[in-house]
Amino acid sequence: MAGRVLVVNDEPRSARALQGALTLEGFDVVLATDDAEALEVVEGSAPDAVIVDVGPAAARGAALCRRVREARPRISVLMLGPRDTAVDHSAGLAEGADEYIARPFVLVELLTRLRALLRRKGRAGADVLRFSDVALDATTHEVTRAGRPVELTLTEFSLLELFLFHPREVLPRSLIFTSVWGYDFTGTSNSLNVYIGPLRRKMEAGGEPRLIHTVRGVGYVLREQ
Hints:
Low-confidence stretches: none
Number of strands: 12
Structural class: alpha/beta
Helix content: 40-55%
Strand order of the largest sheet: 2-1-3-4-5
Radius of gyration: 18 Å
Oligomer: single chain
Mean pLDDT: 82
Shape: elongated
Order of helices and strands: EHEHEHEHEHEEEEHEHHEE
CATH topology of the largest domain: Rossmann fold
CATH superfamily of the largest domain: Response regulator
């Protein structure tokens, strides 16, 4: 089982659709239609993650995020909401949501970010991500390749961290944009190459083999040759 997920949504049709999609991916899904029901589930069975699916007034979900965080600080909280309400997006994060995904979104984006949240919580405080001969320390922002220090910009660091959370998974360009630059990023596909290129050169400066590979027409993948 991939984990126990509580979905909070007062619209039955969309709630059942999301439940079905998550169930097919191996999650044990519980539905709640309001804040009181959601908190009862959180306090009683402590799910691994809570998805708060809110309507046009996304700020209402911020209050639930805060109460979930107060009741169970270690639960991952992901908020789904409108794309054009930056204030509500900020409010949700400020009140304890780990992620905010704006509609419309593709299911793979939701699944990828949900799994990343669960992996982070499952690391039980570990701050170093490793793959092959690469190590990334999320606390000190230090990166090494085969023991060699690698100096990265903030954006390059965020890109590498995303790849390390998803080794051997093909990440679509749209998902990379959303995860690194935010829900309202408007860059083009070519603009991503501007960041991937320098990151590759720095990671391979000591003659090491390539780890970040292009998947034509889709995106990129972190894997050994």
